[in-house]
Each structure stands twice: as C-alpha cells, then as structure tokens.
Amino acid sequence: MKDLKNKVVVVTGAGSGIGRALAKSLAIRGCRLALSDVNEEGLAETVAAIKGSDVRAYRLDVGDKDAIYAHAAEVVKDFGQVNVIINNAGVALSATVREMSDADFEWIMDIDFWGVAHGTRAFLPHLIASGDGHVVNISSVFGLIGVPTQSAYNAAKFAVRGFTESLRQEMKMEKQPVAVSCVHPGGIRTNIANSARMSRLESAADLRKGFDKIAMTTPEKAAETIVKGILKNESRILVGPDAWGIDAINRLLGSAYQPLVERFSRNRLLI
After folding, report:
1. E strand or H helix at 9
2. Alpha carbon of 85 to those of 5, 81, 121, 193, 196: distances in Å?
3. Each residue of 17-47: pLDDT tens digit?
4. % of the chain beyond a pLDDT of 70
5. Is residue 69 annotated as a catalytic residue, yes or no?
6. What is the pLDDT of residue 264?
7. Mind listing the pLDDT tens digit for each residue in 57-92?
C-alpha cells in the first residue's frame, strides 16, 4: 500500500489520544474514515476536528464480540469496502497478580486482547476482498517486556503481539493481499492513565504523575510514526525513543533485563 488516498480506514478508540491523532493524520492523506469509540462525546470532538473528509462515527464497545462483527458489516455497507483496520482501543490496569480481581482481569483482556482479535477476524474477509488490505494492531512496549503490577496488561499486549505476528506469516504463506503490522508504543502522552483501574493503594493522581514523567512522545508524533510504518509495510512499528531502547535491551539481554526492571520499579515504589 503505497498511497492511502481514498482508502477506507477503520480506527477504534478514535475518541482521544493516538486514535484521534491517527484520524487527523489519515484525513490529511485523503482517507475515508470509519471512526469508533465507546466515548461518544470524545468521538464527536474528533469528527469535528477533521475537515473536508468522508468521515463516519460509530459508537462501539470493543469488549462486545457481537458488536464488533455488526460494526464490520455496517462499515462495509456504508463505505462499500474496507482497506485498513487499526485496532487501537485499549485500557489500562495497575495491580499485582495477588491483588487483581477476576473481574478486572477479564475486563482488560476483553478490551485489549479480544477486542483486537475479534476486530481483526471481523474485518479480515473484507480486507482480503478489497485486494489491498492492511491489519494494524496496537500492542505496547509491555508486549516486549514484563513489568511488575502490569501482569494483566502484559498478558493482553504479549497476546496481541503473538496473534499479530502469526497472522502476518499466515497472510504471506496464503499469498493474501493483506499486510499486517504490530505497533509497540512507548510512553505516549494520552489519558489512558486517568481511566486506568487500580486495585492497590495508589491514587489516580500518583499514577498520572508517574506516567507523565516517562511519557516521551505526543499522540501526533505517534500517529505519524504509525502511518509511515503502514506505508512502508513494517511488520513491527516501534513508537518513541523509549520503545527503541526497550526493544534493544530486550534483544541484547534476553531474560536478563528483568533485574533492571525490578530495580527501576522499586525505586518508583511500584511494589
């Protein structure tokens, strides 16, 4: 896919953060956009910020499998085809394995993993039919390394990575006209920390303060990196200097990275 002009692009979680920035960047490139979010107010703000493009907004809870498949059918009906699906919607959870409730564990997996898996599977036949498709799944640097208090988030993001890398190989082996990219953002200045669930004695303000210290990349910069990665058909798209650093450390040290993460976590009083 060398040019995105007039391509039909689906973006979940488009009501804020990376999703909103992606919508703006894609609109500038002449894409036709199907934008969704569970937050209708935020989604409306995104649509209002986009000028002169073919844009439609849909309320969607990616934790609802049936809703995702219905959404795929509706988008194809509205636009006639789909070229790109960007499974971006996600949430966060800060809790140790011992503290975490089953309900919270299921909540984050339903959205961060199953939302991606069902979104991919629902749109894949339409991407193949388009003759020029692309699946873009948002993982995280936490899909590259494990971090204390992030076991559930790690589980979801590692699962997204494995699922996406396997799909890319399948599409190539089957000679299907669908490219596949897995995105690993580092710290991005979004509101995800504000909406995170916590089961430990930690305030939202403290979590946000700590997150702001390590958030190195703006959503706009992240979006540009992702779009360029799509156009280059990159299998792994690293977003931000911290993502490149973490990937390098992981490749260099293997499992020996873990003592470094433990030390950093203790210094930040995460556990």
Report:
1. strand 8-11
2. 15, 11, 10, 25, 25
3. 999 999 999 999 999 999 999 999 999 999 9
4. 88
5. no
6. 73
7. 999 999 999 999 999 999 999 999 999 999 999 999
What's the CA gap between 165 and 216, in Å, rounded? 26
Contact status, residue 138 vs residue 90, Cβ threshold 8 Å? yes
Specify the fold of 8-245: Rossmann fold (3.40.50)
Q: How far apart are CA 234 and CA 229, in angstroms?
A: 5
Residue with tokens 């409306």: 44
Residue 14's φ and ψ, nearest 5 degrees, are -85, 5
What phi, psi does 132 have (nearest 5°)? Answer: -160, 75
* Boundaries of every domain in the chain: 8-245
Read off the pTM.
0.90
Alpha-carbon span 202 to 157, nearest angstrom: 23
Catalytically annotated residue among 58, 69, 153, 257: 153
Answer for the pair 218, 189: CB distance below 8 angstroms, yes or no.
Answer: yes
Strand 32-37 versus strand 55-59 pairing type: parallel
* Cβ neighbours of residue 109 closer than 8 Å, sequence gap 6 or more: 152, 155, 156, 159
pLDDT band at 250 (very low <50, low <70, confident <90, very high): confident
